[in-house]
């Protein structure tokens, strides 16, 4: 009979999902950060060649939005960077892979423990 406490497999799975999500968030934010850096050059050139004050103001508003988006992505990168860098190191990456294998074995064991057990007679 299983109680409401999380099983080792569930806890291990949550941790592995956390590491994977950190990596995903880091990658997405890094790419978005690069895109905003490229956009900066476009916006600066648009300001430089703006025909009048109104056009320059519109570009400045877009520049402000771009900088805010860049800041948000930079913060996401910084938030996840330590976890990502840690697991990029070979010994830690190897440990992470072993933890994934452990999760599979643990799930199998829990399936047996919490599943319907049937005794098969050994002697006939």
Helicity level: over 70%
Low-confidence residue ranges: none
**N-end to C-end Cα span:** 30 Å
What's the total helix number? 3
User: How is the biggest beta sheet arranged?
Assistant: none
Cα shape: rod-shaped
Average pLDDT level: 95
Order of helices and strands: HHH
Topology, number of strands: 0
Structural class: mainly alpha
Strand percentage: under 5%
Rg estimate, integer Å: 26 Å
Core attributes:
mainly alpha, single chain, 3 helices, 124 residues
Report a brief summary of the structure.
The protein has three helices and no strands. It is mainly α and 124 residues long.
How would you describe what is shown here?
Helix 1 crosses helix 3 (about 90-115). The two termini are about 30 Å apart. Helix content is about 80%, strand content about 0%. With about 120 residues, the protein is an all-alpha fold. The relative contact order is 0.14.
């Amino acid at each position: 009979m299983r109680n409401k406490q999380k099983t080792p497999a569930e806890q291990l799975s949550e941790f592995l999902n956390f590491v994977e999500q950190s990596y995903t968030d880091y990658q997405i934010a890094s790419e978005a950060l690069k895109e905003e850096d490229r956009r900066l050059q476009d916006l600066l050139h648009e300001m430089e060649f703006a025909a009048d004050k109104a056009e320059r103001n519109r570009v400045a508003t877009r520049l402000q939005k771009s900088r805010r988006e860049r800041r948000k992505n930079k913060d996401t990168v910084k938030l996840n960077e330590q976890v990502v860098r840690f697991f990029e190191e070979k010994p830690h990456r190897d440990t992470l892979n072993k933890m994934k294998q452990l999760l599979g074995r643990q799930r199998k064991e829990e399936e047996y423990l919490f599943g319907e057990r049937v005794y098969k007679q050994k002697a006939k």
